[in-house]
From TrEMBL:
Single GO MF descriptor: aminoacyltransferase activity
Family matches, as PANTHER family: LIPID II:GLYCINE GLYCYLTRANSFERASE
Record carries keyword Acyltransferase: yes
Name used for this protein in its record: Methicillin resistance protein
Key words, A-Z: Acyltransferase, Cell shape, Cell wall biogenesis/degradation, Peptidoglycan synthesis, Transferase
Highest taxon in the source lineage: Bacteria
UniProt cross-references to Pfam families, sorted A to Z: FemAB
UniProt source species: Leuconostoc citreum
GO terms under biological process: cell wall organization; peptidoglycan biosynthetic process; regulation of cell shape
Family, per entry: Belongs to the FemABX family.
Amino acid sequence: MAILDLNDAEKVTAYQEFVRRDPRGQVTQDPLWGELKSNWGHVYVYHETNGRIDAVLSVLTVEAVTGKLLGYAGRGPIADIDDIDLIKSMIEEALTALPDNVFLIRMDPEVPYTPARNTAYQNAGFVTRNRDITHMHGNIQPRKNVVLYYDGRGEGAKPITNEDDLMLHFKRDYRNQIRRAAKDGVTVTSGDSEADVRAFFETYVMMATAQSITHRPIDYFLRMQKLWQGTGLFKVFLAHFEGHVVASGIGFSYGDEIWYMYAGSDRRYAKHYGPYAVQWHMLQWGLALGKVAYDFGGVGDFVPTDGLYKFKHGFAYHDPHAEYIGELDWVLDDSAYQMYLEQFS
């Protein structure tokens, strides 16, 4: 077990290659994510077997209670999550390098919830936050996601090996809407340039304004673009109609999945189905890369009345619901932890 020395270029490369290529890999465990979160501290832990990295825990820190730091391992660790002794030893290693005022190490790995796994972590001294949280934003990351599985899971699903299979995987009206977008002249481009990000941002702000929700600043996405440009792991998809960008999406390719992370749309052009065209092309990207899964991101609940679920489910209505384990909290200062939780009540 060791702390990553960011001045050791060879070891940093090995760490990143593991995070990017391991089937369980997540962009939020890449040290580049720590660079993106420029106002957060960072510590990166790795475990080796026979000289090869086989587990990592990337912990970013930020003041979440006055004078106290939250240590957050977003979608981490990348490891055998059921090897709790290994996970605890990685946390202990991280704590040797973290400031003394860290009150919590929080992990939320993208692994399924099971009662047995939940109980095992509780018995090992963790506080778990999953089914007791009844609203989507009660966790840092949504715990319920819509996922399309290219390998054909769920009732009526078949392995998706080509674009025809992919199209047939969708609901009939979604297929019609994708075809309608093309018939209307909607075209989709993809890239990782600054211009792509700026075009995305315009639709992103439009969507946030229409839904009365907050949004990240443009500088956040420009940093993202500069950090990942040329890696092939990051793409911006833009739907164009008559000279206007009418919809957009940002995706990351890590491990065995595509993670659809951000989106935007111009409601003035809703009848041309730009968001459906964007999804079609992003899903083709995952197919071309041989991915196992395409993660549409979180929903409030798996019910038709949930707006996010209603849109996403039409692409993945064959697929089983993805309910993740949620937050696994290693509490170091209970009074600070209780103050922190009050923000989510």
